[in-house]
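Forum > Structural Biology > Help requests

Title: Can anyone predict the 3D structure of Cyclase?

Hi all, first post here. I have the sequence for Cyclase but no way to get a structure on my laptop. I'd be grateful if someone could post the C-alpha cells.
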Amino acid sequence: MARFTLERVIRATPAEVFAAAIDPALHVESMARYGETMVKGPDGGVFTEGSTVTWRARHFGVPFHLTSVVFDIDPPRRFRDRQTKGPFAWFHHEHVFEEHSEGTLMRDTITFRSPFGPIGTLVDRLFMREYMRRLIDERNQMLAETLER
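Reply #1:
Sure, ran it for you. C-alpha cells for Cyclase below:
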C-alpha cells in the first residue's frame, strides 16, 4: 500500500478548519481544476456519521466516479473517509486537527492501493503516490487561503 502524511498549520481555530475540511461545497471548489463534481451528496448537504458521497472527476484524461463514506466524525478533532466504490483497490483518508500556537495543525494521512496487483503497486511507486500527494497539498493550500483571508 502507498501511504503519505501531509501537515499544514492554518491560522484559524480547529473548529473552523474542521468545518472547512468537512464541507462538501468547499471540497468541490478545491477540486475544480480537475472538474470534480458531486454526483450524489449527503442528505442536507452536510456530512454526518455514515454519510456517503459520489464524486465525478477526470484525472490523467480519464473520467471516473468514486463513492466514499465519511465516518469516525469527532469535531473538531478528526474525521475519516474511505472509498466504497471507485478506481482504487483501497483508499482511506484520515483528517486530524490539533491546536497549534499559530492556529491549527491539520494532518492528512492517505493510504491507498491502485488496482491490478503488482502493476498497480508499480504505478503507485512510480507516480501515483506523488500525484495524490500534490493533489491533497493543493486542496489544503486552498483551504488555508480560504480560512486565512
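The beta strands are 2-10, 37-40, 52-59, 62-74, 78-85, 90-100, 103-113. The domain at 2-147 is CATH 3.30.530.20 (Alpha-D-Glucose-1,6-Bisphosphate; Chain A, domain 4).
Shout if anything looks off.
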